[in-house]
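Note to self: keep these together.
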Amino acid sequence: MGRLGKQIVFFAGFFLILLSLFFYFRKNFPVWAQSTPLVTQTNFSVSNNATSATNVTYTLEFKFSEQFDGGSNAGGEFNLNRITKTGGDNDSNMDAATGTVASFQYENPSGTWNDITYTSFSKNISELHLLIYTFSGIQTTIPANATVKLAITGVTNPTRAGWYAFSTELHDNNGTSFVALPYNHPSKTVRAEIGDYCLKLKMTAPDGTTPVGGLNVWTHSGTNSFDAFYQSDYKGMVVLYFDSFNNRDTCPSGASERVYFDIMIPPDLPNPNHYIAPNQFSVELPGDKDKYYNDPVKMSVATKTISGRMTYRGTNDGVVGVTINAFKMNGSGYTYTTTDSSGNYELKVGGGNWGVMPQQSQGANWSYGDKPGEVKFAEDSSTETASVNFVVDRATATIRGRLVKPDGTPVNPGVDGIGGVGVWSQEGKGGGAPLSGDGSFSISIPAGTYNFNVWAPTNSQYGAPNVAPITVRDGETKNLPDIRLTEKNATITGSVKVEGTNTPVSGIKVNAFVRDGAGFSEATTDA
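Structure:
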C-alpha cells in the first residue's frame, strides 16, 4: 500500500474511532434525558430589543397542562438564559438584577383576566450572570390550559446580543413540578432576539417549508482562522452572533472573511425520507446575513444507491450488525446503515464521489485494513446504483496491558483524561479499546505486527511513549509490561506570518507529531 493509501486508511480509521466514541458517550451519558414538561410557553416579547436598553418590559405567556394548585408551598423560578451556543451558553452578561412585576394574571374560560396573588417576589443574578425571578407562596389555583401572562417592567437588557429564553421551573402546593427548559424542551419554550446577529439560516425539507432540526452545522473561514459548531433547532434555525465564532470579537465581514458552511445529518438523527445535506456553500457578510433565512437551505432526497455485502476472509459467512458508513469525498455528505442477518447492506446517497467504510466497534471480532471503497455518481438527481463489498479478517489474537503515569501509578481515565489506546498495522488493520478504571486494556485483533498508540487530548500533561512493534500469532494472548507515559516537558514555539511580509496570522492550528512514534500535540496561533 502506498503512502497516500496509508494516509487514507489512517484518516478513515480515525474518523470511525470518533464515531465509535460518539455512540459510546451518547449511550452511556444521555444528556438529553427529559421529563415530561408540564408548561408550554406561547409568547415571549421584549419591548426594546437593543442591547443594554433600559426600562424594558418583558412579557411571557404560558399554559399549564394540568391544574396548578395554589397555596403557601407553591412557587418557583423564571431564569433568563442566553440560547446562542450548542450545548448551552448561560452567561448573559447581566451584572445587576433589574425589573419589577407589572402584572401576573391568568385568563379564565369566560375570557376574564384574574390576578395571581403571591407572598413574595425577588430578583437576583447568579454566578453565571443569569437573571433569576423567584416567586414564593403563589396562592392562586390556575386551571389547566389557561393562558398565564407575566409582565416584568423596568428591566435593563443584557449587553450581549443573542437569543434569550426563560426557563420555567415551578411547583404547586402539592409538589407537582411544572417545567419548561430551553435546551431540554425547546418546543415548549419561546425565544426573543436581543441585539443584532451576524447571520441567520433556516434548514428545511425539499419543500422549502418543513423545518429540519438536529442538523450538525459547521461554519468556518477559508483559512480556518475562526469556526463555530451548531445544531439547527426544532424550527430548523441557526443564528450566529459574533461570539458564536471561536477567535472573534466582531462579526466576520468582507470577501477576505467569507464564511463557509458544511452541513451533516448526524448518525443518530431519524431520516426516514432519506434526505441528504447540500454541498458546502458560503456567504459574504454583512450583505448575505439573511440570504439563507429568506431562501432556506433545502435538503434533497437521495436518488443513488450503494449496496454490498460484508464477509469473513476465506468464507461466505456474512458479518452481521456492522455499521457501514458512507461519506462524501469532496463535501459534507454522510449516511450510514447496518448489515443484516446475511451481511448485506444498502445506503441511499446523493450525487458525487463517495467513500464507503465499515465501522469497527469496540470488541469486534474482525478487522478491516483496506482503504475505503470509492463510488462515483453523477452530480444530478438521476437514479444510479453501485456495489461495494468488504472482506474482513477475524480477530483471533489479543493484546492486553496497562497504562501507568510517569511515577508508576495506574492511569485513571476519568481523572487523567486519557481516552484509550489503539494498535494499527502497516496494512491498516487494528483496533482500539477504552481504559478500565485501573488503566488496563484488552484489544482483539487478527494475527500480525502492530504499532501502539495512546488517545490523549493535546492539553494532557502526559505524552505517548515510543513502544516497539508488537507481534501476535493466531490464537495468542500477549500480555504487555506496564506502558509508562511520558511527561510533556518540552516546548516548541514559533509564529505564522503572511508569506513575504511580517504580518502575523491568528487562529491558525499548528500540529506537531513524532515521525516514528505516537507523540502528537496541537496549538492555535494567538492574536
